[in-house]
Fold:
Amino acid sequence: MASDLLKVPKTQRKVTLWVHPEGRVIGHMFLNKYSSDHAGEQQPLETLNQTEAFVVLRREQPDEVRFYNRASIVRVEFDDDTNAHPDAKPYDCRLQLMDGSLITGTVCQPLPPDRARLYDYLNRTDDRFIKLALDGTTACLVNKSYIIHATDLGDA
Structure:
């Protein structure tokens, strides 16, 4: 009973991870029920950008809980029903990853006016992962360490 007092309330979000060198992994990421940054539950991007070395995932096949090293996670995809921040300028871009993947999507994160380019977003030192909207319902979180190059598709 005393150990129940130490538990942090969590929810689970279904995600697909690409992990080096394991490959594709389907499971559920554990998220805090309350975010320290905004109203509502914690988002996968917040979880992946924390400082701890490992993230908890309940795999589907086999059905077990594993601790994945954040540095080995190449990217994470999940259904995303959150709206883009209203003050964010969208950046259409293409990322070439070390595993050969070519990902095209839109970055929609608020940036300070004096540092509001795709280049600035990629160079933020406080975030290991960046978020791209792939379509109307899918988000992709990409580990910046696995990006070979990025192209700003809106830059003429």
About this structure: The two ends are 62 Å apart (CA to CA). Residues 128 and 145 are 8 Å apart (CA to CA). Strands lie at 10-19, 23-32, 54-59, 65-69, 73-79, 91-97, 102-107, 129-133, 138-143, 147-152. The first strand starts at residue 10 and ends at 19.
